[in-house]
Design goal:
- The complex is a heterodimer of chains A (about 230) and B (about 400).
- By secondary structure, chain A is α/β, with parallel strands linked by helices.
- Chain A is about 30% helix and about 30% strand.
- Chain B has 2 domains: about 5-50 and about 250-390, no CATH class; about 60-225, no CATH class.
- Chain B has 14 helices and 12 strands.
- In chain B, the strands form 2 sheets. In chain B, strands 1, 3, 4, 5, 6, 7, 8, 9, 11 and 12 form a 10-stranded mixed beta sheet that branches. A two-stranded antiparallel ribbon of chain B has the order 2-10.
- In chain B, helix 2 (about 15-50) packs across helix 11 and helix 11 (about 305-330) packs antiparallel against helix 13 (about 355-385).
- The longest helix of chain B has about 45 residues, at about 245-290.
- The chains are: A alpha/beta (about 230), B alpha+beta (about 400).
- The interface of A and B includes residues 91, 117, 127 and 163 of A.
Chain lengths: ~230, ~400
């Protein structure tokens, strides 16, 4: 039996926010393993802590306590807080992100948006990725269009291409279908599934939609900051 | 690959009107700065040229106010004082003196000059010695007087244009009702000679009833001599005063320095206003793109990358504005010249605004440096944006 390679290991991960004098435990003592090549969906009601969890996994925020390892590399632990610069370094080497609101730069064309991450950092061998990805995602005919000239589904495909251009190990998707209709939502999840299968990409997707969540090969259900159920 | 410059440039196009207005602000301040610095240089250069083109370094005049004497010599005027022509013999003997020339300045009221009349200045000169002191004078038409007692005139370029006279025409001296035949018209010199009407000294003395009187003696010194001893010696002559043209220049420069400080202050204020505009524009643009900047950090931009991106936007605005301002200053230098002349108590001939490559480069570098300084704060603020706060839209603005 082949041994699975661990992609993300979270141990007792906790995030507490202060709101005035009140403390809000957004993520409460969560532990889990995500293996390389997993497609994990995180579902749960609003305020259950799923976005906070994905932000912690994606090094967008420091946890209050707990440990996080990416592969065999310890990131958070022993109360160690990383600077914004250190977090950025980890993020750009490891993660691709997509969001509900796409966040494309409106003044740049589709191709320029996809190439944008390479302006700041590029792994060797990523030079031809933008063209390859646009073809793979079926939007190469839109490469010279501005974001305002394409549909929501196409915008999310552009966002996926942008997230993938630096060949990340892990793709984090926070409500990627939140602004799309049922048909386009299914298409986007299908694209994520294809990337997971063909490239072996680890995908972590936060969603409200049970049906879409079931498309993943593992599903975490969050409630009150804790993972209540793992399928 | 898309460069940071392309990203910054395209972002400025997002709010075209706002970027354009900021650019115009910088262009105007750059225009004012180049024009005023050009004026500072041009005024001094023209004054030097005017004084050098007088052909002599010292003037002897009948005792009176030296400033009035200098102004009379440069601009013409009334209230003249006279000295005897015989004084010249003593001056010629001095070892420092190379050449001298006598001048009788006269002024008459010309009712046809301007809307309500004006003063017309006539210079009585000895053409031979005068031409020796001013070898650069060239004739457009004709030449010097045929005789020392002739009723002939040589007109400066502008005087001839104004009076619409050609060689062979006659002109009438107002008040005295004496006619002179135009025998020569000078080429443009860019000095006060352009507006002057020259007549033979003897003739003018006769017309004004001052047979042995002159108002001025121009002295050209031998090369490299120190004029101090000569000035002291000449002061011993009765009822005369010595005007060194170097002193005249310094006096005029002092008079003009107040105006220069004022216009320079205006230029600095204009630049400061433009730079506040730059800070405002860039800062507003940073706040508007708060989420976008956060996303840029999410996709791999370091704080320094964001800083550079915002700084490049400032650089583009300031460089484009600076260049536009310089072009405006070059195109409108004639207008600036006219505006300056209208407010200055004395303006030399020739161009008052002198803009050269060095001045253009210094101004551009200055504008860009000040612009980059203005960009530091917005760029620093943008570099500090945390991606998580930006995505949530909850930054502590």
């Amino acid at each position: 039996m082949s041994q699975k390679i661990i992609s993300i290991a979270a141990t007792n991960l906790t995030k507490i926010y202060a709101r005035g004098n009140e403390e809000i435990i957004s993520v409460n003592n969560v532990s889990f393993l995500i293996n390389k090549g997993d497609f994990v969906s995180i579902i749960g009601p609003s305020g259950s802590g799923k976005t906070t969890l994905i932000n912690l996994l994606g090094c967008l925020d420091n946890p209050t306590s707990g440990e996080l390892c990416l592969g065999d590399r310890p990131i958070f632990g022993n109360e160690k807080r990383l600077s914004e610069r250190e977090l950025t370094k980890i993020r750009r080497e490891t993660f691709g992100y997509i969001f509900q609101n796409f966040y494309l730069i409106p003044t740049l064309t589709v191709m320029e948006n996809v190439m944008l991450p390479l302006t700041f950092y590029h792994k060797p061998g990523t030079e031809h990725e933008p063209v390859k990805l646009l073809k793979l995602l079926g939007i190469d005919h839109r490469k010279d269009h501005l974001p305002s000239q394409i549909s929501g589904g196409e915008m999310q495909r552009v966002a996926i291409a942008r997230a993938m251009v630096n060949m990340p190990d892990i793709l984090l998707a926070d409500e990627p279908t939140g602004n799309l209709d049922t048909k386009r939502s299914a298409e986007i999840v299908h694209v994520l599934q294809e990337l997971n299968k063909t490239v072996g990409l680890t995908v972590v997707m936060v969603t409200h939609n049970q049906e879409l969540a079931r498309q993943a090969n593992r599903m975490f259900e969050m409630r009150d900051g804790q993972i209540s159920q793992v399928e | 690959m898309i460069t940071k410059f392309q990203v910054a440039y395209k972002n400025l196009l997002r709010k075209r009107i706002r970027s354009l207005l900021t650019l115009i602000g910088i262009a105007l301040s750059s225009w004012v700065l180049v024009s005023l610095l050009g004026f500072n240089r041009g005024y001094e250069a023209s004054l030097n040229k005017d004084i050098d083109n007088m052909g002599f370094q010292l003037m002897i005049m009948a005792k009176g106010c030296p400033y009035e004497a200098a102004t009379l010599m440069l601009k013409g005027g009334t209230g003249l004082r006279y000295m005897k022509e015989s004084i010249m013999a003593d001056i010629t003997k001095e070892p420092e003196v190379e050449k001298i020339t006598p001048i009788l300045m006269s002024a008459v009221f010309d009712p046809n000059k301007g809307e309500s009349g004006g003063i017309a200045g006539y210079f009585g000169i000895e053409s031979k010695s005068f031409a020796e002191l001013k070898p650069f004078l060239k004739f457009r038409q004709g030449g010097w007087f045929t005789d020392a007692n002739a009723y002939e005139t040589v007109m400066g370029f502008e005087a001839a244009e104004l009076e619409q006279r050609e060689v062979g025409d006659m002109i009438l001296m107002p008040e005295k009702n004496v006619k002179f035949k135009v025998v020569g018209i000078l080429e443009r010199t860019g000095t006060q000679d352009d507006g002057t009407i020259f007549v033979p000294l003897k003739t003018l003395q006769k017309v004004f009833g001052k047979p042995d009187d002159i108002t001025t003696i121009g002295i050209k010194l031998k090369k490299g001599v120190d004029s101090t001893r000569l000035e002291e010696k000449l002061y011993q002559l009765p009822d005369v005063q010595i005007v060194s043209l170097e002193q005249v220049k310094q006096t005029i420069m002092k008079l003009i320095s107040t105006a220069k400080v004022m216009v320079l202050s205006i230029a600095i204020i204009a630049i400061m206003i433009a730079m506040v505009g730059v800070v405002n524009t860039i800062l507003t643009s940073v706040w508007e793109r708060f989420q976008e900047i956060g996303i840029l950090k999410t996709i791999g931009a370091m704080p320094w990358d964001i800083f550079k991106l915002i700084w490049i936007e400032t650089l583009i605005l300031c460089t484009a504005g600076g260049i536009l301002g310089v072009i405006l200053a070059l195109i409108l230098s004639g207008v600036t010249d006219m505006a300056m002349r209208s407010v200055l108590p004395y303006a030399p001939g020739g161009g008052l605004v002198l803009i050269d490559l060095k001045l253009v480069l210094v101004t551009l570098v200055g504008i860009i440096c000040i612009g980059l300084l203005s960009g530091i704060y917005p760029a620093w603020k943008a570099g500090r944006i945390r991606p998580l706060e930006a995505i949530r839209g909850e930054a502590g603005r």
